[in-house]
Amino acid sequence: MPLAPDLNGRIALVTGGSRGIGAAVACRLAEAGADVAVNYRERTADAEAVVAAIAQTGRRAVAVAADVSRGEAVAAMMRRVTDSLGAPDILVNNAGIALIRGIDDLTEADFDQTIAVNLKSAFLCTQAVLPHMRAQRWGRIVNISSGAARGAGGVGLHYNASKAGLEGLTRGYAARLVKDGITVNAVAPSLIETDMVKAGLAPTPARIPLGRFGTAEEVAQVVLMLVGNAYMTGQTVALSGGIAFN
């Protein structure tokens, strides 16, 4: 069995795909043979750079701007993706925000925005791709969670709640879609080497037993594994460098 799935003929949609984990996932999916829609909200140049990198692999790609926390924007994005590439067979719900707040600084607006972007967006995008996946009786959905779903984390309780909700959403969809040939899983990274992590959340990897931050590429490897595995569903795969064990 090959280590990477053969995704030739498949269409993938990656939300929040303009940089970091999303960009790494989009490129790995393309390397495995998929045509990829790269969703972004504001970083047009970054998204176009990911599309250009995918084009180097010989696969088709399109950058699609949309605020995936809004239903009408998701519907418009799906029309654009379907017209440009075809209906998605693979969905990676990666879009998210991490507003670092203490309990006394957290506002209702912060809480609502975090739930909308980190959790509601996954619901909206999943609902949008299900008709096609069900019709063909094949689909792969991977949600990007966080170790904060089960631990204290450093962002704030609003972030904890959004990621714990995302893992509940993962299990709920998995249980209801397993008979349709659709798998739904999550990946929960902790302390991946991003600008946000190094700038304030964890300036050094001192608390990681492995002795370094994780990489976006390592997260993408797990996403590819989940896309290629037809038997695993409803699971959360943690990447923490030894910080925590399931």
Automatic annotation (TrEMBL):
GO molecular function: oxidoreductase activity
Stored SUPFAM superfamilies: NAD(P)-binding Rossmann-fold domains
The keyword Oxidoreductase belongs to this UniProt entry's keyword annotation: yes
Protein name: 3-oxoacyl-ACP reductase
Keywords: Oxidoreductase
UniProt keyword annotation of Oxidoreductase present: yes
Pfam families noted in UniProt: adh_short
Any GO BP annotation: monocarboxylic acid metabolic process
Organism (species): Rhodopila globiformis
Family to which the UniProt record says this protein belongs: Belongs to the short-chain dehydrogenases/reductases (SDR) family.
